[in-house]
Amino acid sequence: MSVHWRPHVLKASGSVSPHELERIESAWGVKLPDDYKRVVSMYQGMAPEPNGFRVGRGDIFPFARTPGGEDLCFDYRGSPEQPRVVLVSVEGSVHPVANSFQEFMDGLYDD
């Protein structure tokens, strides 16, 4: 399945530079997955929904929000270099989604 990206309704900010990604990694004290960095480098500013969300907590960092208000997050608790993807519910419970960002992307489908 291929993923289709469309311009964000409010703004399209263009690509993210490697320097900006390094700054985020440094501020959070983590290494973002290479496949995630490739996606945001190509498609930053393109999304199916507004891209605002809560800032990360501890070893769990959000990268997207579902239509229901739940956060899709990188979970670094098991590995500082290869995070799992988890869903954090609006109540705060954490649910596993995929063992890697690539596995998450491979599992996307159309309704």
UniProtKB/TrEMBL annotation:
InterPro entries: Knr4/Smi1-like_dom, Knr4/Smi1-like_sf. This is Knr4/Smi1-like domain-containing protein. SUPFAM superfamilies: SMI1/KNR4-like (SSF160631). Residues 15-107 form the Knr4/Smi1-like domain. SMART domains: SMI1_KNR4. Gene3D superfamilies: SMI1/KNR4-like. It comes from Cystobacter fuscus. Pfam families: SMI1_KNR4 (PF09346).
